[in-house]
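assembly run, all chains below
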Amino acid sequence: MNPTLIIDASFLAAAFLFIYGLKRMSSPVTAASGIRVAGLGMLIAVVASFLYVFSVNEAAKPHLMVNAGLGAVALIIGLGWAWTSGKKVEMTAMPQMVALYNGMGGGAAAAIGAVELFRTSAEHALVPLVVTIVGSLIGAISLSGSLIAWAKLDGRVNGVWRFSGLQVMNGTFFFATLALGLYIALVAHGHAPIWMTAAFFILALVFGVLMTMPIGGADMPVVISLYNAFTGLAVGFEGFVLQNPALMIAGMVVGSAGTLLTLLMAKAMNRSVANVIFSNFGASGGEEQG
Amino acid sequence: MLTGFIALYIFMLAAFTGYEIIGRVPSILHTPLMSGSNFVHGIVVVGALFALLNATSVTEQVIGFAGVLLGAGNAAGGYVVTERMLQMFKSSDKK
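ok done. output:
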């Protein structure tokens, strides 16, 4: 049978199982079985994706053995480490582990974007290039932001940054990063020098830190949920770049579900999301907004 | 090819699906659902694997390796943590 057909059918099954699993997870009665349904989908997708060795690009064929070996090793290390750390962790330490794993997902999405952007030999069409940049930006912010959220909840980083001008500094930082990304896409057409692409990723990572540092520990669950939605969006966007509908569907479902969940969590705490994210930006003291 | 409007249709329908799944969920399930959706975007590991398999230079191999490593961590960790959280719902239901 045609390997591409098996991969496509497996991704379709995975997309269905993810949605069905999430639906089951949204009711207390069926929640426990929901994660198994989604887990089955993941297993099918990952196993089937190894069939992709039969349909890689012509240019990558001489490197196929090395690449497949690297992929298997990375998969085993990542899986083994996360599985054991997830089993060991105390029940009370769950939220920061979610942040940590979520940050890893954001980093993986940013890595997909980075592989595309560092492949300067390839021809890039404009729309996928812009989507790559946006996905990489969101993924990198989610990576460093989630790591700070994890470190704060784990008691490794204490205190919040609050000083006047913080909001202006963060805003400037964000737009500088975005401008550099758009320069790479629109002006350099994906053929920017390597240092410039590297600088874009470093700036995005630093912005994730700057954005999370002013937020206090009590607000962290809302922030983690927001970064969860960010990672979902980044995965969806990079899925579009890779022409992979399973990533597009799973990413966008999580992107919208995560956004709604963030709003609901903030509402349950009697806060608005804007209040959580921006209230401490540049506030030198006092609660002028109430 | 999933270009242009087909991609936008997929994104639009997926966004509605996510919105409908989460609507009116009890607040006790907020954290497990956050964790569950965190697991679902672990599918990024498949994308990272594809990127790595198509790598043609050492730079691409290193970044691709990191991507698969991180993505596998997201998927496996997300699963274990969510299952442990939801296990508590199961036992309290039976009692």
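Chain B has a mean pLDDT of 89.

Chain B touches chain A through 80 residues (CB under 8 Å).

not gonna interpret more than that til we talk
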